[in-house]
């Protein structure tokens, strides 16, 4: 188990990580979602001992490793650009740490070879042992990088955007592979990414990092269904955000009027998921009492299993609607066609003046 | 289109002139080295083609009125000095460049202090060193005072070469090795050094060639046992014979051999680097 306690780090007095505390459990897949500039790379570098934090401690088990040099930490790191040793073969790359590490090096070459073969089999690279790392593909490099780290049996394996440089097809396959490999070894993966669907799909738990702070730590479905703040909702890239204010007991945003959930003092924003919205052609009326707004069709994007429609609201903002083709056939709209967008009150999330989520139960109670 | 053509012709003439001036002296020297001996002098026309002067340099020619070049010992000295300078300067240059990879206090001042060694005019530096040595009662020798100045002169070159190499070095490779539990010292030996090796070769070549034909600094500080360039200069004072040219051709061939070895070593590492995709942008 690894524990971060009040970690802070800044560059030229610009804060990169602010008072971050976190427990990383044994044998779990933890993903960290952060947009670029959120401090996620800095956090990884601090954990790996490549940067020194200004405040806070890092505990690994019952040992304080905050000031320990990188090579004595027992943490593995898989870099975004793989950082393979260019002058070595695949085999030599994978065996390098095992044979040359400071603590408990394996000096028996036969033993190194045996474990290299074992690890290469685990990541599916058998047969490439003697290739130079320049002669293999991006996906294979990724696996070599992973194998090289896993063979040293780190307590926690840090992965810095491990799928970022792969093409979409490969990314999907590696998503499954990574989870499988982790499960087989029982090692903790701490996977950092800027991609929300990756964070949601892969993590047992996920952390949302924003401006150096962990703003939500929860299971992915909780984060997705109940983003803790407006910013989390925005990172998830699955919510239409309607900014507005409370006027005489109702939440007003442009033409949209919605009842204020009980107990809420002030509201700044409402969020409606892309796939919770109904599109009504002109003439059709929204259900009585259901919130609705008028918009014009801009464009649609076919994505295989779903279609995403883009509408422009009266105030110029964009509104996205997602339709899953397993549940309905795609609709076609003419450019500039006027439609009414409507949704149910129980699908709305409200955020207070600080941008924090107002508890779901209360919102439902009000509807 | 027209302008482009004039530009092309202009550049072609410029290049031709450049190559002419670069190789002209060597070609003239090469032709004259085959002058008839021992009667032929260092001028055209060639009386008769012969390899007499080559035999003369190598000591195979029968005794004649032309004294043999006093180069045997001077050559050994120069090569020893150049080799020692190469080793010391390359090690110092590499270590200094490694230090400059992380910012440290006063790095700007240190940088200029190091580079000063190749900026200060050699004659002044040689003269100054001679004065200091005399003041302190230190004997001037090619292996002491001159050696120090050779290092002072070539070390900045080695340093700058290595600085450029480290600039392009991907630090994350080292970090990966550390994260695997490999201590920094071993990481440098097993990972960093093999990757920067082509650069080290270049730095070595620089230091070797600069030291080998160094003149002004050695003139004042080398003492009575002269090095190669000074021995040759000494023969000018009496009379010039084509044996000098023969020797010139031989040393040039030696330099080419050295460059070829360098090229082969470089080619090997570059091919290995290409095979491993070091230039590939990820």
Supply the key terms.
heterodimer, A: 367 residues, alpha+beta, Rossmann fold, OB fold (Dihydrolipoamide Acetyltransferase, E2P), 2 domains, six-stranded mixed sheet, five-stranded antiparallel sheet, 25% helix, disordered C terminus, B: 282 residues, 72% helix
Describe the structure.
The complex is a heterodimer of chains A (367) and B (282). Chain A is of the alpha+beta class and 367 residues long. The model of chain A is unreliable at 362-367 (pLDDT under 50). Chain A has nine helices and 21 strands. Chain A starts with a strand and ends with a helix. In chain A, the strands form five sheets. A six-stranded mixed β-sheet of chain A has the order 6-7-8-3-9-10, sandwiched between helices. Chain A has helices at 40-48, 90-100, 109-123, 138-150, 168-185, 196-202, 220-225, 230-236, 360-366, and strands at residues 2-11, 14-24, 29-33, 55-60, 63-64, 75-78, 156-160, 188-193, 205-210, 213-218, 239-243, 245-247, 250-253, 256-259, 267-273, 277-281, 292-302, 306-313, 318-324, 338-343, 348-352. With 282 residues, chain B is mainly α. Chain B has helices spanning 2-32, 52-58, 72-99, 107-119, 122-136, 145-167, 171-179, 184-212, 216-221, 228-236, 243-275. In chain B, helix 4 (107-119) crosses helix 6. Classes of the chains: A alpha+beta (367), B mainly alpha (282). The A-B interface holds A 48-50, 69-77, 79, 81-88, 96-97, 100-103, 132-135, 138, 145, 148-149, 152, 165 and B 170, 172-173, 175-184, 186-187, 190-191, 194-195, 272-278, 280, 282.
List the helices and strands and how they pair.
The complex is a heterodimer of chains A (367) and B (282).
Chain A: E1 2-11, E2 14-24, E3 29-33, H1 40-48, E4 55-60, E5 63-64, E6 75-78, H2 90-100, H3 109-123, H4 138-150, E7 156-160, H5 168-185, E8 188-193, H6 196-202, E9 205-210, E10 213-218, H7 220-225, H8 230-236, E11 239-243, E12 245-247, E13 250-253, E14 256-259, E15 267-273, E16 277-281, E17 292-302, E18 306-313, E19 318-324, E20 338-343, E21 348-352, H9 360-366
Chain B: H1 2-32, H2 52-58, H3 72-99, H4 107-119, H5 122-136, H6 145-167, H7 171-179, H8 184-212, H9 216-221, H10 228-236, H11 243-275
């Amino acid at each position: 188990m690894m524990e971060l306690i009040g970690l802070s780090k800044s560059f030229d007095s610009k804060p990169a990580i602010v008072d971050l505390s976190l427990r990383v459990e044994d044998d779990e897949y933890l993903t960290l979602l952060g947009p670029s500039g959120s401090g996620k790379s800095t956090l990884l570098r601090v954990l790996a001992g490549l940067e020194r934090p200004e405040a806070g401690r890092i505990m690994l088990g019952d040992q304080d490793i905050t000031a320990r040099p990188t090579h004595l930490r027992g943490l593995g790191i898989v870099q975004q650009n793989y950082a393979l040793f260019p002058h070595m073969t695949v085999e030599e790359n994978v065996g390098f740490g095992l044979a040359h590490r400071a603590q408990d090096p394996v000096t028996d070459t036969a033993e190194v070879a045996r474990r290299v073969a074992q690890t290469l089999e685990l990541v599916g690279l058998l047969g490439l042992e003697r290739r130079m790392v320049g002669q293999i593909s991006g996906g294979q490099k990724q696996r070599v990088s992973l194998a090289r780290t896993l063979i040293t049996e780190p307590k926690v394996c840090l992965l810095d955007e491990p799928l970022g440089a792969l093409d979409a097809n490969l990314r999907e396959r590696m998503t499954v592979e990574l989870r499988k490999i982790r499960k087989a070894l029982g090692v903790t993966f701490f996977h950092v990414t800027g991609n929300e669907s990756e964070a949601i799909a892969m993590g047992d738990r996920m952390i949302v990092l924003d401006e150096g702070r962990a703003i939500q730590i929860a299971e992915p479905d909780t984060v997705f269904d109940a983003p803790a703040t407006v910013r989390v909702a925005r990172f998830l890239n699955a919510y239409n955000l309607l900014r507005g204010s409370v006027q005489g007991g109702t939440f007003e945003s442009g033409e949209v009027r919605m009842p204020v959930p009980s107990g809420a003092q002030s509201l700044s924003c409402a969020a409606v998921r892309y796939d919770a919205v109904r599109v009504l052609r002109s003439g059709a009326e929204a259900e009585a009492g259901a919130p609705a707004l008028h918009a014009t069709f801009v464009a649609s994007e076919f994505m295989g299993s779903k279609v995403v429609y883009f509408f422009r609201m009266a105030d110029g903002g964009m509104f996205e609607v997602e339709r899953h083709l397993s549940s309905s056939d795609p609709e076609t709209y003419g450019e500039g066609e006027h439609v009414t967008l409507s949704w149910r009150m129980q699908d709305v999330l409200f955020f207070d003046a600080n941008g924090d989520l107002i508890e779901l139960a209360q919102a439902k109670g009000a509807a | 289109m027209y302008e482009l053509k004039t530009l092309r012709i202009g550049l072609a003439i410029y290049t031709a002139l450049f190559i002419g001036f670069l190789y002209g002296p060597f070609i003239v020297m090469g032709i004259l080295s085959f002058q008839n001996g021992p009667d032929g002098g260092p001028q055209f026309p060639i009386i008769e083609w012969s390899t007499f002067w080559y035999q003369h340099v190598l000591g195979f020619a029968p005794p004649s009125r032309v004294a043999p070049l006093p180069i045997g010992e001077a050559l050994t000295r120069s090569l020893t000095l150049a080799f020692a300078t190469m080793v010391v300067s390359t090690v110092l240059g590499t270590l200094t460049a490694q230090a400059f990879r992380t910012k440290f206090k006063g790095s700007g001042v240190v940088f200029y202090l190091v580079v000063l060694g190749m900026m200060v005019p050699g004659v002044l530096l040689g003269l100054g060193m001679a004065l200091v040595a005399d003041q302190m009662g230190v004997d001037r020798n090619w292996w002491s005072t001159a050696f120090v100045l050779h290092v002072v002169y070539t070390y900045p070159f080695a340093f700058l070469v290595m600085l450029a190499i480290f600039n392009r070095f991907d630090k994350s490779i080292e970090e990966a090795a550390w994260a695997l539990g490999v201590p920094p010292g071993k990481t440098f030996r097993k990972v960093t050094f093999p990757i920067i090796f082509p650069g080290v070769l270049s730095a070595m070549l620089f230091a070797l060639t600069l030291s080998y034909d160094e003149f002004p600094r050695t003139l004042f500080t080398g003492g009575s046992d002269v090095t190669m360039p000074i021995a040759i200069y000494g023969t000018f004072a009496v009379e010039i014979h084509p044996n000098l040219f023969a020797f010139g051709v031989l040393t040039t061939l030696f330099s080419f051999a050295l460059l070829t070895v360098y090229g082969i070593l470089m080619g090997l590492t570059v091919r290995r680097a290409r095979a491993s995709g070091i230039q590939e942008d990820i």
